[in-house]
Structure formats: structure tokens, C-alpha cells
Amino acid sequence: MVDRAPRLAVWKFASCDGCQLTFLDCEDELLSVAARVEIAYFLEASSAPGPGPYDLSLVEGSITTPEDLERIRHVRRVSKRLVTIGACATAGGIQALRDFADVKEFAAVVYARPDYIATLDRSTPVAAHVPVDFELRGCPPDRHQLLEVISAFLAGRRPVVPAHSVCVECKARGNACVMVAHGTPCLGPVTQAGCGALCPTFNRGCYGCFGPMESPNHASLNHWMRGLGMSTPELVRIYRTYHATTEPFRRAAEEAQESGEEE
Amino acid sequence: MIGGPHPMTPALYRVRSRRPDRVDTVTLTLEPLRGECPPFHPGQFTMLYAPGVGEIAVSISGRARSGGYTQTIRAVGAVSAALCGKRPGDVVGVRGPYGQGWGLRAAAGLDVVVAAGGLGLAPLRPLVRALLGDRCGRISVIVGSRAPDLLLYPGDLARWTRQGADVRVIVDHPDHAWRGPVGLVTRLIDRIVFEPRRTYAFVCGPEAMMRDTAAELVRRGVAPGRVELSLERNMKCAVARCGHCQFGPLFVCEDGPVLRYDRVAPMLAVPEL
Amino acid sequence: MDAVVIDSLEPLVDELRSRGYAVVGPVVRERVIRFEEIASADRLARGWTDVQEPGRYRLAEGAGEMVFSFAASPDSAKSYTQPPRQTLFRMRGEQIEEAEEDAPRVALLGVRACDLAAIAVQDRVFLGGRHPDPAYLRRRRALLLVAVNCAVPGGTCFCVSMHTGPRATTGFDLALTELAAPHRFVVETGSERGEQIVAALPRRPASAEDLAASAEVSRDAAEHMGRHVETEGIQERLSAHDSPRWTQVGARCLTCTNCTMVCPTCFCTTVEDATSFTDGTAERIERWDSCFTLDFSEVNGTPVRGSNAGRYRQWLTHKFSTWIDQFGMSGCVGCGRCITWCPVGIDVTEELANLP
């Protein structure tokens, strides 16, 4: 353990700032965090960034431009530990939907001068470019999990961020299964916990924003959800959101397409 | 009447001394803040709690002169690393001792083969000491180590030799100074002398090593009921309430960790049991 | 005490509440029968019934004045005997303190024979071993059980196969049988506590007709089990570790843990460590865990049971076979919750019937 307070940095890449806002939203705890660590770089909260190196870097956002590529390598160089926070930094985010289409075509349609747009063909997670010490899922991440990661880092233990399904939290919270009771399609069984089963608690199916759980069985779930009335395009669409390019969800959408063609 | 402390609440112990054994392994001597260390049987383990970090099962490798437990920990995860980092004066939590130890009495009057792989020597250490203390038969101790510098308790091994045990070491990855045999611990079975039909064996190490060693001993005529293994499963509670260490009908924490080969051999053959 | 008849549940609820019990009973919430605290018997799910099949649960109207015309709710007594999450202890400096969470008095109104059997199983697990749990005992003692004899078993029920129902014979403070025309309840007592409560209610002795009608309810229920399990030779059948059936069910299983979460006897837990930001206090928490997670069997970074098939086999063989070796009783009480609440409708009775 270091004698001085550990230095924390928060970095932003292609993202909506929602993950950083989750951190700011920790309110009460944030003061305690500030007492234990030196928040040395956090543009969202302060305009006076301190220089590196940093003991812990939290990175929000995906890598989408050539400049991002350079900057993430810099962040890695100046950080002892690098933790990605949120679906963009961990999985490429909603903007990774570009991977399924032609970015040049988008740019030509949207921008008057598409040649001004310097963007990569794909939106990729941070771990595709530099080693990452821990990936925190969620769109946005859960504030308790975010605090847990910082707290575990300070205590030198493994963060309690289980990789099992949302169902574990859903049942511990006392919810009845929305799929069984209401016939509402739900990605909870194939999605990693962490949100506290937020959507099912409000009688919505899980949208999978924490990405695939440790052993997702999408083929079985897809089969059942078809029985609940979901069409092939609907099945493809529910997997192509925040974790569209994460391997198990990419396969899940493909499996839905293939099994749809068979029928 | 049910009362007293919750079975999941540790007693607090102070680190009395710390001895680095190898690059990643440390032996701590632990003494309770209040009262005395409960007695233990060789082969038993405790749950060691690094405050705020977590708890792991660690076998007891001996009793210090001061009365405390000596426990050898290898830093492989956050909890074991935190425990390895403890210094004299630091406080840790201890629950136990737990589990079924080695069948010391069943071995009386027989030749004894003690086979250890890596850190598996730790729970066998108090057994060998007890064997040397109260019997005069043939005792062979065969030890497999990944590399010469990873060998555990070299001082004890030398002492046991002086006390009459046939102690042999084999390594997987020799360095240039190594003059001894190279390979797996099962190869040493050839080199020791024992009368299979009058032999009792105690085996501890990685599961594959235990399976192979036990099978080899049995092939040579040792009765399966006279071979004991110390199984490793995910022990979280040590009091048969968390379910994690189940192995078929067994709770390894309470029915084991030491189990007879004739009982577990069929189960060890089932994948993912 | 001989059985008595009461015409209304209101005095019972009032009496329990006046004795300091939070009365928890079946109500309709979000189209599901749930157990929650009620202030009055008016809140109970009067007139509702349920339709249960593998992976599907629906409520239906049509039970008229009947209050208990449905089968098992997703809620069992487990949340009360073994909360999903509890603090074990806190440690600060060289002080360690057990979190003696208080056990408020709860009267569970409407538990079924299978639930009582499940509580007996949990008693064996938490109190009958070498390391009894004083916190469990506190909660258990604070629990008053008002059982209801099942009249309308669900499509996934098989308590008759597991010899746990449908009639409550032991383990309750009070047991009610709901009768129609005229609407009334036959009340049996199973404890001194129960007798004291009945003594305070407006009541009349049960007539021979009342008792016959009450017995008929259970006879009829026993004949309408939705599912069946052949328990004869079950341990032998479950020793077929290499049956292809495991791979087949593994292909369907989501490893989502729902079956274990709704199971009234599944007791497995894990622990979590936390440290306070403010003063560094360390805390250990015990929470429900499931043999369907990968962490559950992890040894040195690798799960012993990595495949879906391996994890499903662990669950089923433990529940119906090795549980008997460990605790001298089956881990299954035949409530059918795991069948109804499996999101993809895996049916344990079908799996068992198709082994080896």
C-alpha cells in the first residue's frame, strides 16, 4: 500500500457521459471516496486536471477515431490500474451497431462535408487495444458496483461483481419472473447481473445492457421467446443494442436469424 | 441448546511470526487474541479471514512451540495474497479447525508411504511428525515439486531423514544445480521400500497427482481402503451449509478433506461431479 | 384441542396482529399470488385461482368466495427462514461484532403442506448438523405457521409423490381447511401457541360433517396432482452419471438459477466482503447462491462443473438423491415451483422419468 492517497483519473472516449454521471451520482459516497483518493483527473467534475501517473484510471467510452487509439495508449501508459466502466468502453456500446453497416454511407447521408469526419470503421472496446485490469458492465454501470470496484481496489481484493445471470438478483429482490407470469420476453437469463434487476422489477423484460452472463444459452432462450410470439427481426433486434458485438450476443442474433430461416 | 457464536464468525488471531518459504509462499504462526488454540488433528484445516478481503481454507501444518498454529499460504488470489502480506502483530480471523484429518491410528504397525505434491506437503507435515514420534516402522516420504527452489520445508525433510524416514524428492523442472530425479512423484514409488500388503498411504497434492499416485499404489497391491487422499473443493463455509464443496454425497469440508481412496475412487472417475 | 370451525378469517388476522405478529398472506400483486404483509383479511386473494404449467403461470378469476383456491406461489417460507442476504459480522480494528439482526414475529398465513415439509428440511440443514445456526433459530422461533390444506393443486404439483402433502399433518401452529356452502374454515391446532390463538376466536366445535368435508378436500386434492415422480429406486436411477439425458437437458438449461432461487429447500449461499469508505469497517455478507453459477464450484480459478449438463446434473442429483445421503431426507417436497418458474419450462419430473 502506498502512503499517499491513491490518485484516481476518469477518462472519456466515445460515449454519452452517462457513466461519469453515475460516478457523480454517488453523492454521499463520493465525498468519502474523495477523502480516500486524490481525484487527479476528472474533466466532468473539475477543470483543473492534475498530471499523471495515476493509480487507478476509470475509462468511459469506446474507441472510434484514430485519435482515440493514440489517447487510450497514453492512458494505459500513465495508469497503474485501468478499469473500463460501462457498455461503450467494455463492449463498444450502442455505436458498435456501425459494425453491421457501412460507416462511409452513414457519414455521406448525415453530414454536409463527410470528408471532415475522421472515424474508424468500427467501434471497439478498450480491451481490444490495451490490457484492461477490470471491465465494469452496464449502460450505465450500477453505482453500487462502481463504488465496489473502487472500494475493492483500495482494499486490494477482487471486486464483488458476479458474472451470473440477472435472475439471481431478480429473485433475491423478490420479483416473480415476468416471462413466466406475464409472457414478457426477457434477456435476464442470458445477461450478467449488476443492475439489481431494474427492468424486471418494473415489469419490463431485461434489455441486456450488462451484456452476456458467464454461460449464456441464447439458443434455448430464443426458442422459448419465439414461442412467446417474438419474430426473427425482433429477436435479432433485442441482442443488437449495447452489446451487439460482444461475442455471445453477436452469435445470439445470428442464431435467431439462422433458426428463423429454418422455420 | 443452540447458542454461542454464529458458525460463520471467526475468532481473532494475531500473527506471531512470518516466514517466507518460497517466492510466493509464506508460513504464518497464529495465536488467538483470547484463550488458547483449540487442539487439531493432522490433516485438518482452518478458515483464514483477511479482514475486508475474504476467507480461504488453509490446512494446519503444525503447532508452534508457543502453542499457535503454523499455516502455510501460497499467494494465488486476492485473499491468499493479503494473508501472505500479513506481518507480525497483524490480526486475522480464524475459524476451525475443521474436517476429518489423516487416519493416523489406522496406519499403526504398517509401513507408511507419504506422498506430497507441491503445497500438499503442508497438511502432511504434522502427520509425518506424529508418525516419527510414535512408531518405528518403515516411513517413506516422497515429495514432488515443480522446481528445486519451490520445494517446501527443506529443513523438515532433512530432519525427517535424520529421524529415520526415507525421504525422496523429485522435480518437474530441474535447474542446473539439481542432481536428483526428474519427473512426477509417482516415479519415486519405484525407489522406496514397502510391503504393499502391509502398507498405509497418505497422499496430498493436485487432484491428478493424487489419482495417479493412489492408482499406482493400488496397482502394486496396497489396499484401496489403506490409501487416504486430501481432496480440494471450493470450501466457503467449512460447516456444511454453503453447499459449494459438494462432491457427490459428500461435503468435502465436513466429510473430508481427508477421504479414503476406496470411497472416492469411483467418484473421481466421474467428470464434473 | 379438537378441531373448530370459524366463519371468517378477520378475527384470526386481528388476533395475530394483536399478538405482535406481522401477518403475511397470499395477495394478488402484478397478476401473481404473492405473500406480503396484510392488515386485513380483505386483502387476501379471494376469488382467484391459478393455472400452472412448465414455464407458465397465469391467474384466473372464478373461485367465487374461496380465499385459497390456488396452488404454490413463487414465494415460499424461505425468504423468512433464510433471507436472501444477511450480514454475518462487522470487524473494525481488533473488534469483531456479530450482526444480530432482529427476527420480527411473522405469521405466515396460507403456507401449504409442501412448504411445511420444506421448513422441516431447512431445520435439518441449519439446526440438525454439527454447527447449528443461532440466527436461523431466532428467525424460526419468530415464525408462526398457519397452514392451509390444498384444495386445488396446480398443474406442476407432485407432493403426493414426495409424501409431503396435500394435507398438513405436522409442523404447523394452525391448519385451516376451507369449505364451501356455507363458506367456513375447519381449524386444527398443532401447538400450544396455536391453541391460545384459537381460544381467543369466535368459533364452534367442528361437526362430524365438517370433519368429513375437510378430509374430502384433501382426498380430492391428492387425486388431482398435476405431476408424478416415481421415488422407488430414485437414487439408483440418479447414479446414471453418464446418461445422454444430461446433455439433452443441458442444451435447454439456461443456467439462470431460477429453479434454485424459487426452491423452498435450496439453501446454498456464498459470502461477500465489503469495506466501508468512511471508517474502513470490514463486513461479511452471506447471500443466496446457486449451483448453476460457475463460481460455485471454482477451484484454483477453474469451475469443477463448467458445462450446463454438469451443473444441471449436480442440482437434480443433489435434490433427489445425495440429499438423502447427507440429511436422511429428500431435498424435494414436490411443490412444483422449479417447473413452473423455469423460464424455458424444464420439468424435473419429466427429466427423472427419462433417466437413465
Compute the number of helices of chain C: 13
Q: Look at the structure and give the mean pLDDT of chain C.
A: 96
Which sequence of SSEs, written as H and E, runs from N to C of chain C?
Answer: EHEEEEHEEEHHEHEEHEHHHHEEEEHHH
Question: How many separate domains of chain C?
Answer: 2
- How large is the radius of gyration of chain C? 21 Å
- The CATH superfamily of the largest domain in chain A turns out to be NADH:ubiquinone oxidoreductase-like, 20kDa subunit
What multimeric state do the chains show?
Answer: heterotrimer
Quick one: biggest sheet of chain A? 5 strands, parallel
Give the CATH level 1 class of the largest domain in chain A: Alpha Beta
Task: Write up what this structure looks like.
- The complex is a heterotrimer of chains A (263), B (273) and C (356).
- Chain A contains twelve helices and five strands.
- In chain A, strand 3, helix 3 and strand 4 form a beta-alpha-beta unit.
- A five-stranded parallel β-sheet of chain A has the order 2-1-3-4-5, with helices on both faces.
- In chain A, helix 10 crosses helix 12 and helix 11 packs antiparallel against helix 12.
- Chain A is an alpha/beta fold and 263 residues long.
- Chain A is globular.
- Chain B has 273 residues and is α/β, with parallel strands linked by helices.
- Chain B folds into two domains: 88 residues, Translation factors (Elongation Factor Tu (Ef-tu), domain 3, Beta Barrel), CATH 2.40.30; 164 residues, 3-Layer(aba) Sandwich (Rossmann fold).
- In chain B, 20% of the residues lie in helices and 31% in strands.
- Chain B contains six helices and 15 strands.
- In chain B, the strands form three sheets. Chain B has a seven-stranded antiparallel β-sheet. A six-stranded mixed β-sheet of chain B has the order 10-9-8-11-12-15, sandwiched between helices. A two-stranded antiparallel sheet of chain B has the order 13-14.
- In chain C, the strands form four sheets. Chain C has an eight-stranded mixed β-sheet, sandwiched between helices. In chain C, strands 7-6-14-13 form a four-stranded antiparallel β-sheet, with no helix packed on it. A two-stranded antiparallel ribbon of chain C has the order 4-5.
- In chain C, helix 9 crosses helix 11.
- Chain C is globular and about 65 Å long.
- Classes of the chains: A alpha/beta (263), B alpha/beta (273), C alpha+beta (356).
- Chains A and B meet through loops of A and helix 1 of B.
